[in-house]
C-alpha cells in the first residue's frame, strides 16, 4: 500500500506540472473525447517519459531531462540553503527525473555529500552519475587519471554518496598523460568489482571515445551542448550515434545565459563562479548574442513556452539519445525544465526555427586558458 501511495503521488505531481504550464495542446497529443482527463494526462506524460543512454548490457533508461546538481554547491556565485537543495533534489525525483549529476570536483567533494544525503532514502529509484579526473578533485591543480587515483577516488565518492555503487562514472576530462586504454581498463575492473555499473567520458575527442569503447563499452558522453555551443553536432554526436553511445548535454542553457535570467548587468562572485572569467559571459558578448534569445522568445510566446523550454525542447528534438541535464536551485525552474520534454515540434516548425537560429553567429569563446586546454582531448 505504501508503494502504491508513493507512485500515485508521483504521477499526480508529474501530471499536475505538465497541465499547469498549458502543455495540453494540439502539438503534443489529441485526446480522444471518450477518454477521461486523467487518462489523457497519463498519455501526455508517457509520450516523452524516457530515453536510453548506451546500448546492450550497458544501457541506462533515463528521464528525458536530468538534473545537474553542481550549482547547488559550486560555481554559481551563491550557495543555497543546504536543506532547500536536498528538498529540491527529492522533489525532482518525485516529479519524474531519475538522472542526477555530480562530481568529485564540485566543491570539491561537497556536492557529492549533498547529493548523497538527498538520495539516500530513494537510492534504488534513481541513477547517480559522478566523475573523476583532477588532482585532489581540483581542476586548477591539473589532471590525474592514473589507475590508482581512479580507484581511490571511486572509494571516496562511494562514501560521500552513501552508496555501494555508482550508476555512471565519467572521466571528467581526458588526461593526456594516461593512455585511454588504461583508464577504460581501470573502470572495467571497477565494474567487475560491482562498484561501478557504467562508464562515461566527458569532453573527450572522437579518437579517445573510440579507444575507450574498444576496452569498456561507453554508455554516455557528456559534453557542453546548447544553442550557444553546437560544435558537438559535427564532431562527437555522429560517433555516439555510430557506436550506440548516449549523449548527455551539460550547460544546455549555457549556464543560464540562454534563459535571459542573466544579462549584461549580472554581477558574478569570481571566488565561486567560473562565468566571471569566460568570454561569452562578458557584457559585450551577451548583448551581441541576445538576438538568439529573441528568436526563442518569439517562438515560445506563440506556443505557451518559455525561452528555456524552447531551447531544451530543441535539443531533445535533435536525437533520441540526447539527454540535457540543466542545473537549477529553484523549484519553479525545475518544473519548467522538466516540462520542456512534453513539447513535440512539428517538422516544418522545427526546420524553420533551426534555420533562423543558424543565422546567428555566436560571439565569445566558451572557455579559455586551462579550462580550454582540458576539453576536446
Which architecture would the CATH scheme give at its second level? Answer: Alpha-Beta Barrel
According to CATH, the fold-level topology is TIM Barrel
Biggest β-sheet: strands ordered side by side in the sheet:
3-4-5-6-7-8-9-10
In the CATH scheme, the class would be Alpha Beta
- Output the CATH homologous superfamily: NADP-dependent oxidoreductase domain
Overall pLDDT confidence: 88
As for the number of domains, it is: 1
Helical amount: 40-55%
How big a fraction of the residues is strand?
5-15%
The number of distinct β-strands equals: 10
Low-pLDDT windows of residues = 1-48
InterPro entries: Aldo-Keto_reductase (IPR050791), NAD(P)_OxRdtase_dom_sf (IPR036812), NADP_OxRdtase_dom (IPR023210), TAT_signal (IPR006311)
Protein name: Aldo/keto reductase
Domain NADP-dependent oxidoreductase: 64-354
Keywords: Oxidoreductase
What order do the helices and strands come in, and which of them pair?
Layout: H1 2-20, H2 37-46, E1 51-53, E2 60-62, E3 67-68, H3 82-95, E4 99-101, H4 110-119, E5 127-132, H5 147-161, E6 168-171, H6 180-192, E7 199-202, H7 206-215, E8 218-224, H8 236-243, E9 246-250, H9 283-301, H10 307-318, E10 322-324, H11 331-339, H12 347-358, H13 369-373
Parallel strand pairs: 3-4, 4-5, 5-6, 6-7, 7-8, 8-9, 9-10
Antiparallel strand pairs: 1-2
Helix pairs in contact: 1-2, 3-4, 3-11, 4-5, 6-7, 9-10
Protein name: Aldo/keto reductase
Organism: Sphingobacterium daejeonense
Keywords: Oxidoreductase
